[in-house]
Amino acid sequence: MSKGVPGISGYQGPAGGWGAVKAVGASVFSQKAVARDVIAMFRMNQVKGFDCPGCAWPDPAHRSPMELCENGVKAVSWETTSKKASPEFFRQHTVAELWHYSDYQLENAGRLTHPMKYDAATDRWQAVEWQVAFAEIGERLRSYDSPERVEFYTSGRTSNEAAFLYQLFAREYGSNNFPDCSNMCHGPTSAGLTSAIGLGKGTVELDDFEHCDLVICIGHNPGTNHPRMLTTLREVAQRGARIISINPLAERGLERFSFPQSPTDMLKGHATTLSNDYYQVKIGGDASLLKGVMKALIEMDEARILLGQEPCLDRAFLAGHTHGYQALYDDLHRCRWADLEQDSGLTRSQMEDLAYRYDRSKATIICYGLGITQHKNGTENVQQLVNLLLLKGNIGKPGAGICPLRGHSNVQGDRSVGINEAAPEAFLARLEEHFGIRVSRKHGRSSVESIRAIERGEAQALICMGGNLAVAMPQPQRTFAAMKKLDLQVHVATKLNRSHLLMAKHNYLFPALGRTERDLQATGVQSVTVEDAMSMVHASCGALKPASRWLKSEPAIVAGLARATLPNSPVNWEAMSGNYALIREAIASVIPAFADYNARIAAPGGFRMDTPASRREWHTDTGKANFVVSHQRAVARQQQPGDALVLATLRSHDQYNTTIYGMNDRYRGITGRRDVAFLSQAEAEARGLVEGDVINIQALDDSGEPSADRAMYGLTVVVYSMATGSIGAYLPEANVLLSLDAVDTQSLTPAYKSVPVIIRKAE
To answer: Is 242 within 8 Å of 364 (Cβ atoms)?
Structure first.
C-alpha cells in the first residue's frame, strides 16, 4: 500500500464485484449515450445480436440475458458514444494541434462521421465525397510501377466477410502484402502449433472446461484482457478442479473473482478463489520453467518404473501419436537445474511441485496469452507448452488441450478467410478458379516486414482496415518517420487515432459502421460473421442506428476501392457488397472448411471450424504430433550489466490494445495516471528505491550497451508483487523501448514482453 503517492493506492478487492459495476456505470455515462448502451448490452453476445467488439472468448451454449463483462461494456460504450469527430471538429483543429492530444483524447473526440481527405495547405482533414475519394485512390494505386509497393493491413475487428473481400481485392490488384494485427500477438501460436500438431489454433472447446482436472494459466491476465473467462474459471474452481497460474506479476484476475451477476457474490461480498498455486516466473523465463517441469516429470516417471509403479507419462500415446520424444528426453537430461533455476527465477522444488500437480491431473488444459508469445523465442515457448501436454496425452481427449487466448474478436477469423502473406497454393488456385482472376504466388510481407519496407522506401502506399498500426508497432521513433514517407495512406476506422496524424503525401480517412450498428445494404439488413478463440464461427447483427448517415460498412468500402482500382475486374463487387450471403458462398467455394457456410451460421451459436488435432489427427510432415526441442535459454544476459532488468509492456485495466478508455488501472491500484513502472520490493531495495521515486529507463542493445534513442523518462516507481529481475510499464508509451529488429525468429512477432533495460533514479 502506497503512502501518499498521488494515484498509487493499491487495490484489495477481487476482480469483478462492485468495482466492475461502478466502472460500467462510469463508462456508460461518460459517453453520453445511456439509452443506446442499454439496448446494446441486452443484444451483446446474444444468438441474434452482435458479437462484442472486444475479446474473442467464446459464448456459452446457454446464455444469460446479459452475456457481457466490464471491459466488453467499455468497448461497446466507446463505440455507441454520442460524441462526434465531425467535419466541424476537424475544421477547429489542425493536425499539428491534434498531435499534442493524448491517445485517450484523440479517440474520446468521438465517432468519425464523414469520409475525409487531408489538405496540406490548411493542415486539416476536410470532408470529401465517397466516390471522389474512391476514384482518386484508384487512380493512385494504378499509377505505381508494381502492386507490391502497396501494404494491406487488417485489424482483428474486421469481419470474415470484409476480410475475405479485402484479400480478394489485394490479390487481384497484385499484392500479397498482408500486415495483420495477428503478426503482433499470436504469430508464434500459428507457427508453433502448426509445426507441433498440424493446426495453428487451439484444440479445446468451452465444454472441455467442464471436464478438466487442472487448468494451467500461463502468461495472461484474464481480468483485463478477456474478463468473461473469469466466469469459466470460477465454475472450474467451484466444482473442485485445480487452477495453477504462472505469471511474473500477481494479477487479481488470476487470484479471486466476484461475479457481478451473482446475487450471492454481490450481496454477501463473496469471492471465489481461482488459483490454488501461483508461480511468479521471471519475465522471459517461461521456456526454462517448462523444461524444468518436464525434466521433473520424466525423473518422476523413471523413478516410478524402477519401483514397479504406474508411470507418469502416457506411454501408449507417446508411441502411437508422437514423434521426437527421444530428442526431447536427451535435451532435458542435459539441462542443468542451476541454469533452469537462474533463468526461470523459480527453485527446483517449485518446478518439481508443479510437475507433481500436473501428474495428478487426468485431464489438463493449458491457457496462454501474449506473455508466452511476445518474445524472441515466442514460437519455441508455444512448442514447450505442447511438449508438456503431449507427455501425458493431454491433447485430443475431453477436458484437455491447448488454449491460446486470442485477444481480439475476429483476429483468428481474418486468418481463416485468407489474410495471409503466404497463403497455401490450394487456396490461391481455388480463388483464381472461382473468380476468374490471376494472383501472384510471391511471398508477401507481414507487419514488421511492411514497416521495414516502408522505411526503406520500397512501399509507397498503406491501406489500413481498422487498427492503429503505427502506435501498435515497436520503436515508434522509426515507425512514425517511416510512415510519413509514404505516397498514400488510407485508413478505415470508427474513431480518430494517432496513426491518422502521420501524414503521407496523399491521405484519406474513411468512417465505418461499428459492430453494434445496423448494416443496411441493397438486399436488406446484413449479418457478418466472426470466429472466436475456440474456432466457433457465428453471426453478428447490429441493431443500433448508425452514428452518421455517411458511414459505410467495411465490405462496402472495400468494394468501392476495388471497383475504382480495378475497372475491368470480373468480380461482381456490387452484388457481394449488397448481399453478404454471396460473400459467404464465395468463401465456401474457396475454403472447404466453410462448406454450407450460410446454412451452418443459421444454427444458434453457429458452427465450429474443423480442428483435426482435437481428434488426434495430426496434419504434420511426420503425420504425428511433434516434440520440438528448445535450445534457447531465457533473455540473453551474458553481455548485460549486472543490474539489468527485463521489461514487459503491459495493458492497464482501462485499455484495450492501443485503445485507452481511461487513466485508471484498478486491479493494480493505479488511478488517474499512466506514467508508472512496476518493480518488485526486492529489486527496488537493491537499487535504493522506494515507491514514489522517479526513474528513467534505457533499453540495452545486443551488445549490452544502453541504446541512444530507446529511453523513457520520469516514470514513478510502483512497488508490486512480481518476479525479481523484471520490470513492467504500459504500452503503447513503453513501445519506445522496443526494437523493430527484436522479433521472434520464426513468426517475426515483436518482443514486446522481453526488453533488456537498465534503470536509474532521476536527478
So the answer is: no
**Other CB atoms closer than 10 Å to residue 739's CB: what's the count?**
18
> How far from 646 is each of 44, 67, 262, CA to CA, in Å?
39, 38, 40
In one-letter notation, the amino acid at residue 257 is F
pLDDT band at 1 (very low <50, low <70, confident <90, very high): very low
Q: Which contacts qualify for 568-577: CB closer than 8 Å, 24 or more apart?
A: 569/172, 569/437, 570/435, 570/436, 570/437, 571/168, 571/172, 571/435, 571/437, 573/165, 576/165, 577/165, 577/521, 577/553
CA distance 658 to 104: 9
Q: Which residues contact 59 (CB under 8 A, 6 or more apart)?
A: 45, 67, 532, 536, 538, 605
Dihedrals φ, ψ of 279, to 5°? -110, 120
Residue 506 has a CB neighbour count (10 Å cut-off) of 17
Over residues 545-571, the pLDDT tens digits come to 999 999 999 999 999 999 999 999 999
Task: Return the beta strands (E) in 443-587 as ranges.
Answer: 461-465, 488-493, 506-511, 520-521, 524-525, 528-531, 536-540
Within 10 angstroms of residue 762's Cβ, the number of other Cβ atoms is: 12
The helix (run of H) or strand (run of E) holding residue 706 is strand 706-719
The Cα 415–Cα 56 span in angstroms is 14
For the chain, helix, strand, coil in percent to 5 are 40, 20, 40
Average pLDDT of the chain to the nearest whole number? 94
Contact 502, 521 (CB under 8 A): no
Give 366's contacts (C-beta < 8 A, 6+ positions apart): 215, 216, 218, 385, 388, 389, 394, 401, 402, 403
Please state whether the peptide bond connecting residue 732 to the residue before it is cis, i.e. omega within 30 degrees of 0.
yes
pLDDT in tens, 299-334: 999 999 999 999 999 999 999 999 999 999 999 999
What SS3 state is found at 256?
strand
Could you tell me if 669 and 9 are in contact, meaning their C-beta atoms sit under 8 angstroms apart?
yes
> Letter for the amino acid at 693?
D
d(CA 752, CA 647): 8
Which three cell numbers mark 52?
Answer: 462484442
Cα–Cα distance for residue pair 608/223, rounded to 1 Å: 26
If 0-12 CB within 10 Å is exposed, 13-18 middle and 19+ buried, where does residue 393 land? buried
Residue 50: φ, ψ to 5° = -110, 155
At position 169, the amino acid (one-letter code) is F
Rounded average pLDDT over 446-465 = 97
Copy the grid coordinates of residue 454.
516502408
CA dihedral 166, 169, 173, 176 (to 10 degrees): 40
Candidates 154, 80, 76; CA nearest to 111 is: 80
Dump pLDDT digits (tens) for 285-301.
999 999 999 999 999 99
Rounded mean pLDDT, 609-629: 97
Asked if 583 and 165 count as a contact pair (C-beta separation under 8 A), the reply is yes
Q: At what angle do helices 17-30 and 34-43 cross, to 10 degrees?
A: 130
Give, for 218, the enclosing helix (H) or strand (E). Answer: strand 214-218
Distance of CA 203 to the CA centre of its chain: 18
How many whole angstroms separate alpha carbon 545 and alpha carbon 518?
A: 6
Q: Decide if pLDDT at 639 tops 70.
A: no
Element (H, E) at 578: helix 573-578
Look at phi and psi of residue 544 and say left if phi exceeds 0, alpha if psi is from -120 to 50, else beta. Answer: beta
pLDDT of residue 723: 97
Q: What is the C-alpha to C-alpha distance for residues 132 and 297, in angstroms, rounded to an integer?
A: 66
457-486 burial, b if ≥16 CB within 10 A, otherwise e? eebbbbbbbbbbbbbbbbbbebbbebbeeb
Contact between 52 and 72 under an 8 Å Cβ cutoff? The reply is yes
